[in-house]
Amino acid sequence: MRILITNDDGINAPGLEVLTAIATEIAGAAGEVWTVAPAFEQSGVAHCISYTHPMMIAKLGPRRYAAEGSPADCVLAGIYDVFQGGRPDLVLSGVNRGNNAGENVLYSGTVGGAMEAALQGVPAIALSQFMGPATSDLDDPFEAARVHGAGIVRRLLDKGHWDAEDYRIFYNVNFPPVAAAAVRGTRVAAQGYRRDTFFGVEPHISPSGRKFLWITGGPQHEPTAPGTDVAVNLEGYIAVTPMRADLTAHDRLKDLEAALA
């Protein structure tokens, strides 16, 4: 198996080392793991692509590349430049430092990388490690992902639904903010929504008198509805969410058609 890995935390992020270990185990002795990751951190870029300017790509070592672009850019670079139009058998994106559950999914570059792979017709899984008080005291805060990552990827490859629809299924996996031994199992969970948790801005004045704005986030440990991704993570379970890039509100199509007729 030939696996392409990327992330949004950057080529030197510790989570990418965890993902390399996961991918190496999945690929096996006869397989290949290729890395194309952002040269610099790209958190929060979602599914953006560098459509209006070129990006530099540099080979750092055998099967290891850094690109000055987003995770989606890196997937495109991997398929069309590094692989010369060939196809990996699987794209893994992560392991993100922090959860990509609830509304975070919409901003996540980690999810964006997996989404681009799915749009390119390649099976893809995004992986993220929820952080919290229980992980801050660990020698390895990615312990849950490191220990359980290969197992959940293998189960998804063997038993997950992999279709050939125009907007193909891809998977979003979030590991709970606990030690590996405290993981209670796996739950298939819908994307949740943290109420009263929003991004905003905080103004600061520089020494030169100019105003700069920092983006601020809300509390990450507010649970979502029971059974959804953040809620099951906070209960100690690995959350697995099947996703598509289709943003249509299919449940409202008929009502809207009737209303506008």
UniProtKB/TrEMBL annotation:
Binding-site residues for a divalent metal cation, renumbered to this chain: 8-9, 43, 96
Organism: Albidovulum sediminis
HAMAP family tied to this protein: SurE
Reaction(s) catalysed (UniProt annotation): a ribonucleoside 5'-phosphate + H2O = a ribonucleoside + phosphate
Protein name: 5'-nucleotidase SurE
Keyword Cytoplasm in record: yes
Family, per entry: Belongs to the SurE nucleotidase family.
GO molecular function per UniProt: 3'-nucleotidase activity
Subcellular location: Cytoplasm
Needed cofactors: a divalent metal cation
